Amino acid sequence: MSIVPVNAETLARAVALLRRGELVAFPTETVYGLGADAGNPRGVRAIFAAKGRPADHPVIVHVADLAHARQWALALPPAAEALAAAFWPGPLTLIVPRAARATDDLTGGQDRVGLRVPSHPVALALLRAFHAAGGHGIAAPSANRFGRISPTTAQHVRDDLGDAVALVLDGGPCGVGIESTIVAFDGDRSVLLRPGGIAVADLARVLGRAPAMPDAQAPRASGTLASHYAPRTPARLVDAAALARSTPSHTAVLAHTVARPAAFAGAWIEAPAAAADYARDLYANLRALDAAGAREIVIEALPDASEWLAIRDRVQRAVHAEDDDRD
């Protein structure tokens, strides 16, 4: 694996590798993506092999603009078009009826496809160069092993995937730090499959009402299994009072409001107070605690406020204990 700075030469190299069916990791505003030519079945299969990802689990197709997104959709409902106009480029994925180009290996055999236009300048530059070379889209789940902590730096990608990736474009740390919001459409009915970088209140302002919550008929989507984003070290949530009362020395701690006790000798990270800053640092902090050699990671429970919804979602899935249910 080569980690390279981003310039015209390395972008051209990345496009050539993608067109040959190789894997290229690249930064988005959310997390680093593991990219393959969405129109190359060999490249898409390589994503699943590198991640250890189940074949029925769909991946998101990244494109540079709405015009290219339309090539992958049988139809974009007016409400989906409205969200795209409001939030693309940005951390929003739309699940819509698929066109013939969106094959089963991308959609997990479902009749809908996930589409996103990222806002990171490196991702957009790569996508525009890829489209200029004849490519229609880049399939890109997060660039980490299936079920584990998502990567927010190029080094995280190297740590997780090693030589399974031909090239990593280094765009520095990701600014949002947690994955995109996913909204699925059945006609004009919208369903929130995963909270993320776009708040529900902002979706509601465009749609006229908040998306519905998923039911048993909701499509499968990335990051929606019970266990996900998980460290290898067992992790659990505790409230602030319990954390302040007792912190065993064998634990590694991700605190939010509780200060490190003077007598505590283990790994203790006091995360930022603001939700956006906490989200930006979350996965790097979890990786640091996972590497601390503790027997357990303890995470201070988070506020119930709406701006913490997506972060609570990630933390709750990270502490879920069913290893066989990880995405």
Give me a quick take on this structure.
By secondary structure, the chain is an alpha/beta fold. It has helices spanning 8-19, 41-51, 66-70, 78-87, 104-107, 121-132, 154-161, 200-207, 240-245, 275-290, 309-318; strands at residues 2-5, 24-27, 32-37, 60-62, 92-97, 112-116, 138-139, 167-170, 181-186, 189-194, 235-238, 251-255, 268-270, 296-300.
The total beta strand count reads 14
Distance N to C terminus:
24 Å
Quick one: CATH class of the largest domain?
Alpha Beta
Please state the overall shape, judged from the principal axes of the Cα atoms: globular
Spell out the helices and strands N to C. EHEEHEHHEHEHEHEEEHEHEEHEH
Protein traits:
327 residues; alpha/beta; DHBP synthase; 4-stranded parallel beta sheet; 19% strand
Provide a descriptive summary of the structure in words.
This protein is of the alpha/beta class and 327 residues long. Helix 1 (8-19) packs across helix 6. It has eleven helices and 14 strands. The longest helix has 16 residues, at 275-290. The two termini are 24 Å apart. Strand 2 and strand 3 (32-37) form a beta hairpin. It has helices at 8-19, 41-51, 66-70, 78-87, 104-107, 121-132, 154-161, 200-207, 240-245, 275-290, 309-318; strands at 2-5, 24-27, 32-37, 60-62, 92-97, 112-116, 138-139, 167-170, 181-186, 189-194, 235-238, 251-255, 268-270, 296-300. The protein folds into two domains: 2-207, Alpha-Beta Complex (DHBP synthase), CATH 3.90.870.10; 235-325, no CATH class. The strands form two sheets. Strands 1-8-2-3-7-4-6-5-9-10 form a ten-stranded mixed beta sheet, sandwiched between helices. A four-stranded parallel beta sheet has the order 11-14-12-13.
